[in-house]
Amino acid sequence: MKGQNNSKKYSTIHYHDYLELDKILEAQHPRSEAIGAPAHEEMLFIITHQAYELWFKQIVHELASILAMFGNEQVDERSVGTVVSRIERIEKIMDLLIQQIEIMETMTPLDFLDFRNYLFPASGFQSFQFRLVESLLGLPEEERITYNNHHYAAFFPKEQQERLDAIYANGTLFDAIEKWLERTPFIQFGKFAFLESYEVAVDKMVRKEQEAIKTSSYLQEEEKKMRLKMLGSKDTYFQSVLDKKIHKKLKAAGELRFSYDATVAALFINLYRDEPILHLPFKLLSKLMEIDSKFTTWRYRHAQMVLRMLGKKIGTGGSSGHDYLNETAQKHKFFGDLHNISTLLIPRSELPDLPPDLKQELSFSFTAK
Questions:
Q1: What is the mean pLDDT of residues 59-80?
Q2: Binding site feature residues for substrate
Q3: Measured between alpha carbons, how far is 66 from 152 in angstroms, rounded to an integer?
């Protein structure tokens, strides 16, 4: 009986059947052909968007697995490498989605006009899977650009709206990363207090660079003023991490999203990235920034393609077309706080030295017996 079960489980299958190619290859039905005025380019339009939806499905699959590993109070640190590899996969998929726009752009504006009128009121805004991707990554609902003054989920059936709501209720990738950062050890280690040492280092760095600018013999006075302003001081943007109250105000104003503890941890990881134990955490944060950048690039290229195809025409779904898409490229960010960390970085030469016992904790070491 056991042998029969195995035989059934591993029975042979044909490539065509395994991929269900009949369903896939028969899923293209150009509307222009249905009304007796076939437009050659409509097939490209359909297949490209179907390919997008398949890749969105894969991204949702990857994000769901990442959240399963990172969405708990206790994260098995052995899974961080797996999480990084799956985020890298999403990044590569985004590269492919950006490249697909180049294929779409082989279609000219006149080619598109041959069938565009048959698409109303269909719109990419109605892609439920893309909204799943945005929600799983943690795009804040309050920061979403409204679509004709409607809630982003208004055009989906009730069960799909409930699924989107559940993502925010159960926790997004942004939430999981924030909680993971908040649990970062080493910020306070014995007598070593990271923020105290960091503040001293920032003050030293700023004073040194200010002095170099002020005493420069080749800079004009106006140039000196400009450079001093660009340099900032311990009392400017560094306050967002040196003063918890300032951070709280910036967070309340919507300028920051990460908690104070998560921000401090992200800064620590970025500054001491060369310590062995921090290699993977730093890579994880870097890949999250790459995901943000790739989505911004994809949105911007999409907006530029629409501008090329339609100019200032209204979108098929009734949106402002290019203007709406361009605005989402500028404002729809997932991990902007990680990009803000660059503002707080100081040169390696100015980094506070870590105590020997902490350096050992951050290293992979063993004692031979």
A1: 88
A2: 45-49, 116, 316
A3: 25
